[in-house]
Recover the amino acids of this structure.
């Protein structure tokens, strides 16, 4: 795998076609995304609810979760699409939290969307 610095150098070096630039941007985003590893994944899917509503969320691991902490849940593509975000209201047990959806992100999933199992979960800004 080409290092992130080498990819950036190629981009800065110029002389690339539009398609080559787009491919290089994708490779750079993929490496940057891998540097910001999320804390865990969803252990089960859940249905997106309205902002201000609480939802029970199953994670693979809640050992790092703190009440009041803001989370972002994203997909697993190179683009890292934000699915939803919110604030931890309660850590129920080793795999369950209560999340208050606090989501004014313009690209968030509409109400009723199934947020899939294995979606990436991290503190806001970590995914």
């Amino acid at each position: 795998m080409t290092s992130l610095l080498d990819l950036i150098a190629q981009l800065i070096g110029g002389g690339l076609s539009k398609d080559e630039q787009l491919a290089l941007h994708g490779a750079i985003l993929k490496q940057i995304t891998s540097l910001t590893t999320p804390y865990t994944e969803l252990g089960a899917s859940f249905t997106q609810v309205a902002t201000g509503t609480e939802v029970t969320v199953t994670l693979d691991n809640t050992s790092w979760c703190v009440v009041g902490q803001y989370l972002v849940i994203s997909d697993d593509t190179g683009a890292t699409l934000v699915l939803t975000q919110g604030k931890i209201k309660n850590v129920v047990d080793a795999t369950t939290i209560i999340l208050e959806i606090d989501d004014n992100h313009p690209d968030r999933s509409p109400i009723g969307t199934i947020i899939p199992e294995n979606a990436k979960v991290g503190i806001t800004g970590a995914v």
